[in-house]
Specification:
- The chain contains 18 helices and 23 strands.
- Strands 1, 2, 15, 16, 17, 18, 19 and 20 form an eight-stranded mixed sheet that branches. The protein has a four-stranded mixed sheet with strand order 3-12-11-10, with no helix packed on it.
- Helix 2 packs parallel to helix 8 and helix 10 (336-345) packs antiparallel against helix 12 (385-394).
């Protein structure tokens, strides 16, 4: 399932949206994927897979880690896609990075070895590391940072992830084509770049850790032109892996960057295979052809019951959540009592059992776990069909509410999910029609706010900051996200909370708004944070998923035990 990845990753891992938010293993995978895998593939897979033991497991992949991609990437220019972050995260670096220790996230140096922030929080001065080389041999300079931001905000480039730089002074003028250079970025010398924001922001540094903030080389992009993002000669970064080759719809190969400025990778490269269905992937994994696969509910039971494989299972909870967007352009959803009735009509425990193996963390606030400010003690959204009926009656709508569930037809996992919600609403007297459309129409419809009442979506954060989640409920941002909220006072208070420069006070201010957003005004319906599962090859040592739950980040520190390479 694709998803908005915002600077978070929200559907289509801050928020990346399929308009501006990253993508990992998505939401309602459990039941749906098992059905999609198909009975025929299941039989073939089980017939072809051997009973694996410590003594007979082997691999022919040498010191290369082999993975799968769920789709052929649109481009490796990360400014122009919010659905394909996995390859770019390995070939590019950002000014700063995220380190996780004891469950806490910390922003650490990367291409910038240090930085200064003025007392009022408007001017950030980054000192770049000297001697950092792009894969084409060019040295990283402050001009490359300026070029990267100007490219992202160039209206002719039409970059979907330009908003990662929206806090910078002059962003909108540059995006509107009024200037050739973004005003807020100044090169002070070859290794110093100054970035001035429109207003103080404590979250800007976190935003710069997001995948769309990756730094490009001016020479490579300008010489490559349309080949940038596709041709390895021009698609270069400073990352620990280099782009080697790409066979469309088949595979992408990366090789180790021996001159990486930080600690080089331990493996020789990464090979990504595309368009592999889940049953085939399981068979390939057990045969030593793949080193990692995500595990759906069907395969989970298989691996848990296997004496060899059960020791290589991983359970994890990424900073993601699934939720329902309430579109207030719909006259029914504009009524708070109808929104509350929809919340009360949905049995999330049943959804958990059917789509999440009963393991999901049912959410009641704005933030998912692992994001600073997450509060597990929010007022619980209760399943209460009688209360739903009472609220509808109070709103004068005992039996006339007709809603439209907008469904992305290419997200087949969501079809049974939406059908279950449709059935739950019918029990309280709400008639809900499922409107199934293609992906392009889906996003156009969300953006227009016309022709739907609500829609289901996942979001995965790619920066460790609460702001992108809360900012969705401001008047302006809510339009592009399909909420169409008109509450100017709430919008003002969210923006004021985001502008607080003391980190602890900022979190408290956000938390003070959560109950109002979710319970009092029922602006949306948080559903669940999914517990996901994966399994790794016995060959892998020092394997660690990224803090977002992304396997791509693991390729930097992982090692391969060559005793399995036979």
């Amino acid at each position: 399932m694709s998803g908005k990845i915002w600077h978070i990753i929200k559907r289509g891992g801050q928020l990346v949206k399929m308009k501006k938010r990253l993508v990992s293993v998505f939401l309602v995978v459990a039941m749906a994927v098992s059905m999609l895998a198909g009975c025929g593939n299941k039989a073939k897979s089980e017939e072809g897979a051997k009973e694996t033991t410590e003594s007979n497991y082997s691999s022919k992949n040498g010191n290369t880690m082999v993975l799968t991609l769920f789709q052929n990437p649109k481009t490796l220019d990360i400014q122009k896609t919010n659905a394909d972050y996995f390859i770019p995260l390995q070939i590019y670096d950002r000014l700063v990075d995220v380190k996780v220790e004891n469950g806490e996230t910390e922003i650490v140096p990367s291409l910038a070895e240090s930085w200064d922030i003025t007392e009022e929080g408007r001017v950030y001065t980054f000192k770049l590391r000297k001697g950092v080389k792009f894969h084409n041999g060019e040295e990283l300079k402050a001009d490359d940072v300026l070029f990267t931001i100007n490219k992202a905000t160039d209206p002719e480039e039409a970059c979907v992830n330009a908003e990662v730089f929206q806090d910078i002074k002059g962003y909108q003028d540059r995006l509107d084509g009024k200037t050739d250079q973004i005003e807020g970025v100044k090169v002070l010398d070859d290794y110093t770049v100054e970035i001035t924001l429109e207003s103080p922001s404590i979250s800007f540094l976190a935003t710069m850790t997001g995948a769309p903030a990756s730094i490009y080389n001016r020479k490579a992009v300008e010489e490559g032109k349309d080949k940038f993002g596709f041709d390895p000669e021009y698609t270069v970064g400073t990352g620990y892996m280099k782009f080697k080759d790409w066979t469309q719809d088949q595979e992408i190969n990366l090789v180790k960057n021996e001159e990486y400025f930080n600690e080089p990778a331990k493996i020789d490269g990464v090979r990504y295979l595309m368009n592999i269905d889940s049953s085939t992937a399981r068979m390939m994994f057990e045969n030593g052809e793949l080193d990692y696969i995500s595990v759906n509910s069907q395969n989970l039971e298989h691996f848990q019951s296997n004496d060899f494989w059960k020791d290589y299972l991983i359970g994890y909870e990424p900073p993601s959540m699934d939720y329902i967007t309430f579109n207030q352009k719909d006259p029914y959803m504009a009524d708070v009592n109808v929104r509350k009735a929809v919340q009360a009509a949905i049995n999330r425990d049943l959804i958990n059992d059917n789509f999440y193996n009963g393991e999901a963390n049912l959410l009641n606030g704005v933030l998912p776990p692992a994001i600073p400010g997450y509060n597990e003690n929010q007022t619980k959204i209760k399943y209460d069909p009688e209360e739903a009926k009472r609220l509808l009656k109070e709103a004068g709508h005992e039996s006339d509410v007709k809603l439209t569930i907008l469904q992305n037809g290419e997200e087949e996992d969501y079809h049974p999910f939406n059908e279950m919600i449709q059935s739950m609403l019918a029990e309280v007297g709400i008639e809900a029609e499922i409107k199934n459309v293609d992906m392009t129409t889906y996003w156009d419809t969300v953006a227009s706010g016309e022709g739907f009442s609500f829609t289901l979506g996942p979001v995965t954060a790619d920066i460790p900051d609460p702001a992108p989640f809360f900012m969705d409920f401001t008047v302006e941002n809510s339009k592009s996200e399909g909420y169409n909220i008109t509450d100017e006072d709430l919008s003002k208070r969210i923006i004021e909370a985001n502008n607080i420069m003391d980190a602890d006070e900022r979190i408290k201010a956000f938390q003070a708004l959560e109950n109002e957003i979710v319970s009092e005004k029922a602006l949306y319906m948080p559903l669940a944070a999914e517990k996901r599962h994966a399994i790794i090859s016995p060959r892998l040592k020092n394997f660690q998923l990224g803090w977002q739950g992304w396997v791509c980040v693991s390729t930097h520190s992982v090692e391969i035990d060559d005793s399995y390479n036979k």
